[in-house]
């Protein structure tokens, strides 16, 4: 994975788009609160991030 964006996982369920998403850039995961790799793995493996609508996964870009 790339190192363009760090993501912070929280307890809420919402996805915030950023310029990196619009450019379909690779993301860097920072598990600072939870360990939900099994739930989020499929999200980061998708080629087109823009066309994906997260299901019960909250990803906050900071």
Automatic annotation (TrEMBL):
It comes from the Bacteria. It comes from Leptospira interrogans str. UI 12621. This is Uncharacterized protein.
């Amino acid at each position: 994975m790339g190192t363009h964006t760090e993501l912070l996982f929280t307890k809420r369920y919402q996805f915030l788009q950023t310029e990196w998403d619009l450019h379909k850039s690779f993301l860097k995961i920072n598990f600072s609160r939870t360990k939900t790799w099994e739930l989020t793995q499929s999200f980061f493996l998708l080629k087109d991030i823009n066309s994906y609508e997260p299901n019960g996964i909250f990803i906050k870009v900071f």
